User: Fold Glucose-6-phosphate 1-dehydrogenase from Alkalibacterium iburiense.
Amino acid sequence: MSQKNKALFIIFGGTGDLAQRKLYPALYRLYKKEYLSEHFAVIGTARREWSDEYYQDVVRDAIQDIADSDDHAKAFASHFRYQSHNVKDTEHYHTLKRLADSLDEEYQLEGNRIFYLSMSPSFFGTITSHLKEQKLVTDNGFNRVVIEKPFGTDYESSKELNDEINASFDEDQLYRIDHYLGKEMVQTILALRFANRLFTDSWNASSIDNIQITLSEDLGVEERGEYYDKTGALKDMVQNHVMQVVALLTMNPPKSFTMEDVRDQKIHILKALKEPDMSDVSSPEFIRGQYAESEDGSLIAYREEDKVDTESMTDTFVAGKLTINTDEWRDVPVYIRTGKRLKEKMSRVDVVWKKTDNELFDESPTHLTIHLGPKEGVELFLNDKKIGPGMDLTPLPLRSLRSEETIEQSPEAYEKLILDVLIGDETHFAHWGEVAESWKFVDAIKKAWKESDQPIPLYPANSMGPKEAFDLLEKDGRKWVWNP
Ligand code: NAD
Assistant:
């Protein structure tokens, strides 16, 4: 495989946080596993004036914890060149093209190019049109564009952004990263659902009572206050990651794992989402929250964070009830919650079955927990007979959690996704139709919150969100399975 993976990566935003924290380590892991060999090169570009030597030092620093040896890190970093570049300056694209063409020849890359836009989306349209106009796009190899979130700030802006990019690149050349889709355990959802008769036969409205998705973070906004205060949890987490997980949990089996088949099934679900009922302002189907100081005073309130408006109404927490208007799912609520400064960092799915129809036992409903991260694995909770006389029940947890070593050795999301870009597999990326439907859904919630004159509910840092998040399930006679 390695010999086939020939490509020049041009990373816009090569000095940035994402490049250093995620992209260089991911590229190094691919190099270590020989998915990348001698035939690859990277041009990092950003505004700063850096020399190649300095850039290569930065790349080596970024991989120091995972490098096999100094020599191996040096050999890897020798494939990197730096080009100072202002994305708005046409002349710079000519310089970039000369460098790209010479690296193509030096490393025999056969015209394959991956343009990685690791910068503010406000530049995406400018960059992609210059790439086309100044002929950085080759005729002989593949040309792929990788885009980071956020893809727009609402449906309108995402459509505008998409139209701008589509003026120069087709949808099948675009790889919109949603790093959740690169997570091993998120991909595992499809295997669990579609490779086990136990689940294929009962993963439906006649057997399942409800599904719960929690993506909780224990950290606050850290140094991202400026970005986050304009964004909030609904746009930062629900529009992309949560909606993708919802689609994977409820989509019909695709005919195959090709991009087209998977995308069609996901879009079918996203299009069928009922607009949430927000008419009862005191208990709408989507509620928001913002963290206040922790009860013990050790964690500050969101509004006290650096670069956050002291009167901010930004949501640092969202919980909601989704209804999927299809015959398969109409009666099965999907409850979601995500937020910052919650008790624990955890991404998990809980699928709760209905009780049996017989009245022989006072049983607890069977449930399946899929741990997406940082804990990874699956737990199925059944009912067992208590040893001894009578027919009393006792819980029977069947647990398969991945060891730290296994997790450590599993490919990381960016590594998997960059490899997919290299081999041209678009299955695990967010396609325009999915992005568009998710924005429409999220826009309706945002609009309702804006129009309501309700204050944003506060929750103490280091809790599991505001009371309203618990009421949401209680009024349906349910509760969150995970309640740390
Ligand atoms: P960053 O601010 O650390 O880096 C931005 C990069 O863009 C820098 O290299 C900067 O020099 C360059 N740049 C800015 N203006 C420029 C111009 N006019 N011409 C040329 N270069 C210019 O940002 P980041 O955290 O690395 O994020 C990059 C993108 O990835 C953003 O769209 C962000 O939303 C997204 N993203 C980041 C993360 C993350 O963990 N950092 C996670 C998800 C998505």
User: Anything to note?
Assistant: The pocket of nicotinamide-adenine-dinucleotide is lined by residues 13-19, 46-48, 85-87, 118-121, 148-150 (CB under 6 Å). The mean pLDDT is 96. The radius of gyration is 24 Å. Residues 199 and 212 are 17 Å apart (CA to CA).
